[in-house]
Amino acid sequence: MARVGVMGGTFDPVHYGHLVTAEEARVQFTLEHVFFVPNRYPPHKALDQVTDPEHRYTMTQRAVQTNERFSVSRIEIDRPGPSFTIDTLEALRKEYRAQDLFYITGADAILQIVRGEWERSAELLTLCQFIAASRPGFPLEVHDLRKYNVTGRPLDNLHVMEIPALAISSTDIRRRVAEGRPIRYLLPDEVAEHIAEQGLYRRSVRSLE
Ligand code: ATP
Ligand code: MG
User: How many domains are contained in the chain?
Assistant: First the structure.
């Protein structure tokens, strides 16, 4: 059976940090395909605090179009209400076995999950393999993962992955656009074009943190 990766996120907007992480996971873990899954809106955030899901979906599609092993899934965008990763992984588990399904995250996200901050975190951690990438500003220590682990069992299905450091975040990109500073080379040109054409991020600076 195929081994596949799932890269979830708000992607507001998608950037090279996401793409490098997904590509490195694909190669290091011999994944046949990586699905990018933009959320409809993140839990605890109102719909109006993030950019319209269709814009985020289009930008993510444009970003992955040159990689035949990447595609974008509408599974969360088409599901009403806030997007819980556990619902998505439960749906995917109908098609893939736990050992063939890899949820890819940055260091900040995996620490939240391991600490129990996501919906049904402990159960989520049993559904598939997890790949956690080191992310500048969010040091990832295996020691911390063990210390904060809420599941009460060893996390044998959690794999830590080193990636070339990329201190890029969507928050910084939104801020740069609002301030008229450059975003070129932080994300694919096609995504920057969509932002310019649609006039996204010009006014408000929103942080999802
Ligand atoms: P924001 O600043 O709005 O929170 P973000 O840059 O963190 O945006 P998200 O859509 O929140 O992007 O992140 C989706 C996933 O990608 C998360 O698992 C996050 O940890 C990971 N990620 C984001 N940026 C990077 C990066 N530069 N390197 C590695 N992983 C990253
Ligand atoms: Mg984030």
Answer: 1
Our answer on whether the CB atom of 101 is closer than 6 Å to any ligand 1 atom is no
Domain of residue 20 covers: 4-166
Q: How many angstroms separate the alpha carbon of residue 163 from the centre of ligand 2?
A: 17
- pTM for this structure? 0.94
Say if 78 falls within a structural domain: yes
d(CA 119, CA 60): 24
Residue 132 lies in a domain: yes
Residue 10 CA: nearest ligand 1 atom is: 10
In this structure, how many other beta carbons lie within 10 angstroms of the beta carbon of residue 103? 27
pLDDT digits (tens, 9 = 90+) for 151-170: 888 888 999 998 988 899 99
Report which secondary-structure segment, H or E, holds 152.
none
